[in-house]
Design goal:
CATH class of chain B: Mainly Beta
Radius of gyration of chain B: 13 Å
Helix content of chain A: under 10%
Distance between the termini of chain A: 36 Å
Number of helices of chain B: 0
Strand content of chain A: over 45%
CATH architecture of chain A: Sandwich
Largest interface: A-B, 25 and 25 residues
Largest sheet of chain B: 6 strands, mixed
Number of domains of chain A: 1
Order of helices and strands of chain A: EEEEEEEEEEE
Oligomer: heterodimer
Number of helices of chain A: 0
CATH superfamily of chain B: Immunoglobulins
CATH class of chain A: Mainly Beta
CATH architecture of chain B: Sandwich
Strand content of chain B: over 45%
Structural class of chain B: mainly beta
Helix content of chain B: under 10%
Largest sheet of chain A: 7 strands, mixed
Chain lengths: 114, 113
C-alpha cells in the first residue's frame, strides 16, 4: 500500500483565517481524495483532487471555501478558507488503489477554530 | 435511509472475548466491502477487504459478507486491549468503486484488560 504523509497533524486557527493541509504520497497515484470527519458522523467526501484540472467537488462543498491543488501525481493540498468554529473537524486525504477498489488514508489533520 | 448503517456503540468487552461488529446497507450494487480500524488521533487503517459474498480470515479477524441480507460483519477473536479503536465499515460498487466509497459512522470498541 502507498505511504501517505499529511501535514500538519493538528492546528488551532483563528476565525477568518485559512489553513492549508498538505498530502504527499510515496508513489504516483491517479486518484486522491479529501474527506472531512466530524464526531459521530461518517467520513464525508469533500472532493476528488484531479491532476492537471480542477477538483471535483461533492454536493455541499465549493471551491471558494475548499480550494484544492494537485500539481502532480504524488502531491495535493486542501485549503480551508475563511475559517469558522463549524470547520473544526478532522480532514483526511486518501489515495485509491483502482485495481482493488479500495482507498488508503493519511493520518489526518485535526483542526480547531477559535 | 442512509446507504450504510452501523451501530456506533460504544462497545466494551473483556480481554479474550469474541467481538462482533456489523453493518447493513441498502444498495444491492455494492460488491467491495472493507473494514478500517482507526485509533484515536490517527487516520483509518485498512484492516480487511472482501469482494462479493463469503468469509475472509486474517489471523484473529474474520470478515463476513451476506449479500442476500445486505449485511456484513467483522469478528475479532481473543480480543486484546490493542484492538481498542473505532471500526469503520466501507463499501463500493462496480468498476468505479475506488472513487466512490460509502462509510458507516464507526463503532467504538474498548477491550478491557
Amino acid at each position: 500500500s502507498a505511504v501517505i504523509s499529511q501535514k500538519p497533524s493538528r492546528d488551532i486557527c483563528q476565525r477568518g483565517t485559512s489553513l492549508t493541509i498538505q498530502c504527499q504520497v510515496d508513489s504516483q497515484v491517479t486518484m486522491m481524495f479529501w474527506y472531512r470527519q466530524q464526531p459521530g458522523q461518517s467520513l464525508t467526501l469533500i472532493a476528488t483532487a484531479n491532476q492537471g484540472s480542477e477538483a471535483t467537488y461533492e454536493s455541499g462543498f465549493v471551491i471558494d471555501k475548499f480550494p484544492i491543488s494537485r500539481p502532480n501525481l504524488t502531491f495535493s493540498t486542501l485549503t480551508v478558507s475563511n475559517l469558522s468554529p463549524e470547520d473544526s473537524s478532522i480532514y483526511l486525504c486518501s489515495v485509491a488503489d483502482s485495481f482493488k477498489n479500495i482507498q488508503y488514508f493519511g493520518a489526518g489533520t485535526r483542526l480547531s477554530v477559535l | 435511509q442512509k446507504e450504510v448503517e452501523q451501530d456506533p456503540g460504544p462497545l466494551s468487552v473483556p480481554e479474550g472475548a469474541i467481538v462482533s461488529l456489523n453493518c447493513t446497507y441498502s444498495n444491492s450494487a455494492f460488491q467491495y466491502f472493507m473494514w478500517y480500524r482507526q485509533y484515536s488521533r490517527k487516520g483509518p487503517e485498512l484492516l480487511m477487504y472482501t469482494y462479493s459474498s463469503g468469509n475472509k480470515e486474517d489471523g484473529r479477524f474474520t470478515a463476513q459478507v451476506d449479500k442476500s441480507s445486505k449485511y456484513i460483519s467483522l469478528f475479532i477473536r481473543d480480543s486484546q486491549p490493542s484492538d481498542s479503536a473505532t471500526y469503520l465499515c466501507a463499501m463500493s460498487a462496480g468498476q468505479t468503486g475506488a472513487n466512490n466509497l460509502f462509510f458507516g459512522t464507526g463503532t467504538r470498541l474498548t477491550v478491557i484488560p
